[in-house]
Amino acid sequence: MPSKFKFSLGSADATARQFADIKRQLQELPPSIVNSVKPMVDQITQMLDQITQMVEEVQTLTNNLDQRVQESITRNSYTRAEIDAKTQEWNWGVLTPNRGGTGTGNAYNNLFTSGQWRAAWVLSDGTMGTAQSIRAVKTDIVDADDYIPVDALRKVKWCIYRMKDDKNLNLDDSQPMVGMIADNLDENGLGFFCEYDADGSLVGINYPMLGVAALRLAQQVADELDALKAKVETLSNGKDKIGVDDSEE
Q1: Fewer Cβ close by (within 10 Å): the C or N end of the chain?
Q2: Which pLDDT band, with edges at 50, 70 and 90, does 3 fall under?
Q3: pTM above the 0.85 mark?
Q4: Which residues fall within 8 angstroms of residue 29, CB to CB, at 6 or more apart?
Protein backbone atom coordinates (compact mmCIF):
# COMPACT_ATOMS: atom_id res chain seq x y z
CA MET A 1 0.00 0.00 0.00
CA PRO A 2 1.40 3.45 -0.85
CA SER A 3 2.63 5.35 2.14
CA LYS A 4 0.67 8.37 3.38
CA PHE A 5 3.99 9.99 4.18
CA LYS A 6 5.85 11.54 1.24
CA PHE A 7 9.59 11.94 1.24
CA SER A 8 11.60 13.44 -1.61
CA LEU A 9 14.66 11.41 -2.54
CA GLY A 10 15.58 13.62 -5.49
CA SER A 11 18.50 15.29 -3.74
CA ALA A 12 20.02 12.02 -2.49
CA ASP A 13 19.47 10.33 -5.87
CA ALA A 14 21.13 13.24 -7.67
CA THR A 15 24.15 13.09 -5.37
CA ALA A 16 24.45 9.33 -5.89
CA ARG A 17 24.30 9.78 -9.67
CA GLN A 18 27.02 12.45 -9.55
CA PHE A 19 29.38 10.16 -7.63
CA ALA A 20 28.59 7.27 -9.96
CA ASP A 21 29.37 9.48 -12.97
CA ILE A 22 32.65 10.57 -11.44
CA LYS A 23 33.54 6.94 -10.77
CA ARG A 24 32.76 5.98 -14.39
CA GLN A 25 34.85 8.85 -15.74
CA LEU A 26 37.79 7.86 -13.54
CA GLN A 27 37.55 4.24 -14.68
CA GLU A 28 37.76 5.38 -18.32
CA LEU A 29 41.08 7.12 -17.71
CA PRO A 30 44.32 5.42 -18.80
CA PRO A 31 45.66 2.88 -16.27
CA SER A 32 48.66 5.03 -15.48
CA ILE A 33 46.45 7.90 -14.41
CA VAL A 34 43.99 5.61 -12.61
CA ASN A 35 46.81 4.13 -10.57
CA SER A 36 47.98 7.59 -9.58
CA VAL A 37 44.55 8.56 -8.32
CA LYS A 38 43.57 5.15 -6.95
CA PRO A 39 43.25 6.41 -3.34
CA MET A 40 40.79 9.02 -4.58
CA VAL A 41 38.85 6.40 -6.55
CA ASP A 42 38.67 4.15 -3.53
CA GLN A 43 37.45 7.04 -1.40
CA ILE A 44 34.80 7.98 -3.97
CA THR A 45 33.69 4.34 -4.22
CA GLN A 46 33.37 4.11 -0.45
CA MET A 47 31.34 7.34 -0.33
CA LEU A 48 29.12 6.09 -3.18
CA ASP A 49 28.46 2.84 -1.34
CA GLN A 50 27.52 4.78 1.80
CA ILE A 51 25.16 7.10 -0.11
CA THR A 52 23.57 4.17 -1.93
CA GLN A 53 22.99 2.41 1.38
CA MET A 54 21.52 5.57 2.87
CA VAL A 55 19.13 6.01 -0.08
CA GLU A 56 18.02 2.39 0.20
CA GLU A 57 17.45 2.70 3.95
CA VAL A 58 15.44 5.90 3.55
CA GLN A 59 13.42 4.33 0.72
CA THR A 60 12.70 1.27 2.88
CA LEU A 61 11.68 3.49 5.78
CA THR A 62 9.27 5.58 3.71
CA ASN A 63 7.77 2.52 2.01
CA ASN A 64 6.99 0.90 5.37
CA LEU A 65 6.33 4.02 7.43
CA ASP A 66 2.58 3.45 7.72
CA GLN A 67 3.22 -0.07 8.98
CA ARG A 68 5.91 1.13 11.39
CA VAL A 69 3.64 3.85 12.78
CA GLN A 70 0.78 1.38 13.24
CA GLU A 71 3.10 -1.10 14.96
CA SER A 72 4.34 1.65 17.27
CA ILE A 73 0.78 2.71 18.12
CA THR A 74 -0.14 -0.91 18.83
CA ARG A 75 2.90 -1.40 21.07
CA ASN A 76 2.24 1.77 23.05
CA SER A 77 -1.56 1.70 23.26
CA TYR A 78 -4.02 0.04 25.60
CA THR A 79 -6.74 -2.30 24.40
CA ARG A 80 -10.37 -1.43 25.12
CA ALA A 81 -10.42 -3.97 27.94
CA GLU A 82 -7.24 -2.48 29.44
CA ILE A 83 -8.70 1.04 29.23
CA ASP A 84 -11.90 -0.08 30.96
CA ALA A 85 -9.90 -1.80 33.68
CA LYS A 86 -7.65 1.22 34.26
CA THR A 87 -10.66 3.57 34.25
CA GLN A 88 -12.09 1.56 37.12
CA GLU A 89 -8.70 1.46 38.84
CA TRP A 90 -7.99 5.18 38.45
CA ASN A 91 -11.62 6.11 39.18
CA TRP A 92 -11.69 8.67 36.38
CA GLY A 93 -14.69 10.99 36.38
CA VAL A 94 -15.44 10.51 40.08
CA LEU A 95 -15.49 13.80 41.95
CA THR A 96 -14.18 13.75 45.53
CA PRO A 97 -16.41 14.97 48.39
CA ASN A 98 -14.27 18.07 49.00
CA ARG A 99 -15.04 19.11 45.42
CA GLY A 100 -18.78 18.55 45.74
CA GLY A 101 -18.83 14.95 44.52
CA THR A 102 -19.80 11.63 46.03
CA GLY A 103 -16.38 10.02 45.85
CA THR A 104 -17.96 6.73 44.77
CA GLY A 105 -19.59 7.25 41.38
CA ASN A 106 -19.97 9.70 38.55
CA ALA A 107 -23.10 11.18 37.00
CA TYR A 108 -22.84 9.76 33.49
CA ASN A 109 -25.72 7.36 32.79
CA ASN A 110 -26.68 7.50 36.48
CA LEU A 111 -30.48 7.47 36.17
CA PHE A 112 -32.45 9.01 39.04
CA THR A 113 -35.85 7.42 39.59
CA SER A 114 -36.58 8.52 43.16
CA GLY A 115 -35.51 11.03 45.77
CA GLN A 116 -35.40 14.82 45.88
CA TRP A 117 -33.79 16.39 42.83
CA ARG A 118 -31.69 19.55 42.66
CA ALA A 119 -30.12 21.41 39.78
CA ALA A 120 -26.31 21.17 39.87
CA TRP A 121 -23.81 23.83 38.86
CA VAL A 122 -20.11 23.39 38.13
CA LEU A 123 -17.42 25.97 38.90
CA SER A 124 -14.59 26.50 36.43
CA ASP A 125 -12.28 24.47 38.69
CA GLY A 126 -14.61 21.46 38.55
CA THR A 127 -16.25 21.92 41.96
CA MET A 128 -19.93 20.97 41.90
CA GLY A 129 -22.76 22.43 43.93
CA THR A 130 -26.46 23.30 43.90
CA ALA A 131 -28.08 26.47 42.59
CA GLN A 132 -29.50 28.47 45.52
CA SER A 133 -32.33 30.86 44.58
CA ILE A 134 -33.89 31.80 47.92
CA ARG A 135 -33.85 35.46 48.98
CA ALA A 136 -31.88 34.66 52.13
CA VAL A 137 -28.66 34.00 50.20
CA LYS A 138 -28.93 37.01 47.86
CA THR A 139 -28.13 40.71 48.20
CA ASP A 140 -28.10 43.88 46.02
CA ILE A 141 -31.32 42.74 44.32
CA VAL A 142 -32.36 45.15 41.53
CA ASP A 143 -34.65 45.02 38.49
CA ALA A 144 -32.69 43.39 35.64
CA ASP A 145 -34.76 45.33 33.10
CA ASP A 146 -32.64 48.38 33.97
CA TYR A 147 -29.40 46.60 32.97
CA ILE A 148 -30.20 43.92 30.42
CA PRO A 149 -31.68 44.79 26.98
CA VAL A 150 -34.17 41.95 26.83
CA ASP A 151 -35.38 43.08 23.40
CA ALA A 152 -31.87 42.35 22.12
CA LEU A 153 -32.64 38.65 22.50
CA ARG A 154 -34.83 38.96 19.43
CA LYS A 155 -31.75 39.86 17.38
CA VAL A 156 -29.88 36.68 18.32
CA LYS A 157 -30.93 33.78 16.11
CA TRP A 158 -30.79 30.16 17.10
CA CYS A 159 -28.94 27.82 14.76
CA ILE A 160 -27.99 24.24 14.02
CA TYR A 161 -24.29 23.42 14.06
CA ARG A 162 -21.69 20.71 14.63
CA MET A 163 -18.68 20.86 16.95
CA LYS A 164 -15.38 21.04 15.02
CA ASP A 165 -13.66 18.26 16.98
CA ASP A 166 -16.66 15.97 16.51
CA LYS A 167 -16.75 16.79 12.79
CA ASN A 168 -13.01 16.11 12.36
CA LEU A 169 -13.32 12.81 14.19
CA ASN A 170 -16.65 11.48 12.90
CA LEU A 171 -17.18 13.43 9.66
CA ASP A 172 -20.83 13.15 8.52
CA ASP A 173 -21.66 11.03 11.57
CA SER A 174 -20.94 13.97 13.89
CA GLN A 175 -23.87 15.09 16.04
CA PRO A 176 -25.89 18.14 14.88
CA MET A 177 -26.72 20.46 17.78
CA VAL A 178 -29.16 23.32 18.33
CA GLY A 179 -28.19 26.46 20.20
CA MET A 180 -26.87 29.99 19.87
CA ILE A 181 -23.48 31.56 19.21
CA ALA A 182 -21.98 33.15 22.33
CA ASP A 183 -20.31 35.85 20.23
CA ASN A 184 -23.71 37.08 19.03
CA LEU A 185 -25.00 37.39 22.60
CA ASP A 186 -21.89 39.26 23.71
CA GLU A 187 -22.02 41.65 20.74
CA ASN A 188 -25.65 42.53 21.52
CA GLY A 189 -25.00 43.53 25.14
CA LEU A 190 -26.12 40.19 26.57
CA GLY A 191 -22.89 39.27 28.33
CA PHE A 192 -24.86 38.30 31.43
CA PHE A 193 -25.76 35.11 29.61
CA CYS A 194 -22.20 34.31 28.44
CA GLU A 195 -19.36 32.45 30.11
CA TYR A 196 -15.80 33.80 30.22
CA ASP A 197 -12.50 32.29 31.32
CA ALA A 198 -10.13 33.68 33.96
CA ASP A 199 -8.63 36.06 31.38
CA GLY A 200 -12.02 37.44 30.41
CA SER A 201 -12.12 35.66 27.05
CA LEU A 202 -15.50 34.49 25.79
CA VAL A 203 -15.89 30.70 25.98
CA GLY A 204 -19.58 29.80 25.99
CA ILE A 205 -23.22 30.40 26.90
CA ASN A 206 -24.85 30.01 30.30
CA TYR A 207 -27.95 28.27 28.98
CA PRO A 208 -29.74 27.92 32.38
CA MET A 209 -29.50 31.69 32.89
CA LEU A 210 -30.48 32.30 29.27
CA GLY A 211 -33.66 30.35 29.99
CA VAL A 212 -34.57 32.99 32.62
CA ALA A 213 -34.18 35.70 29.96
CA ALA A 214 -36.46 33.75 27.63
CA LEU A 215 -39.07 33.66 30.41
CA ARG A 216 -38.76 37.45 30.86
CA LEU A 217 -39.20 37.94 27.13
CA ALA A 218 -42.32 35.77 27.21
CA GLN A 219 -43.66 37.86 30.12
CA GLN A 220 -43.06 41.02 28.12
CA VAL A 221 -44.93 39.61 25.13
CA ALA A 222 -47.80 38.53 27.41
CA ASP A 223 -47.97 42.06 28.92
CA GLU A 224 -48.12 43.63 25.46
CA LEU A 225 -50.83 41.16 24.42
CA ASP A 226 -52.88 41.99 27.52
CA ALA A 227 -52.53 45.71 26.71
CA LEU A 228 -53.74 45.13 23.16
CA LYS A 229 -56.71 43.10 24.39
CA ALA A 230 -57.61 45.89 26.82
CA LYS A 231 -57.36 48.48 24.06
CA VAL A 232 -59.58 46.44 21.74
CA GLU A 233 -62.13 45.97 24.54
CA THR A 234 -62.11 49.72 25.26
CA LEU A 235 -62.68 50.54 21.60
CA SER A 236 -65.44 47.97 21.40
CA ASN A 237 -67.18 49.37 24.49
CA GLY A 238 -66.89 52.92 23.15
CA LYS A 239 -68.47 51.94 19.87
CA ASP A 240 -71.45 50.46 21.71
CA LYS A 241 -71.93 53.63 23.77
CA ILE A 242 -72.14 55.95 20.74
CA GLY A 243 -74.60 53.62 19.09
CA VAL A 244 -72.56 52.64 16.06
CA ASP A 245 -74.44 50.10 13.95
CA ASP A 246 -71.97 47.78 12.28
CA SER A 247 -74.64 45.41 10.96
CA GLU A 248 -74.84 44.87 7.23
CA GLU A 249 -77.77 46.47 5.35
Answers
A1: C
A2: very low
A3: no
A4: 37
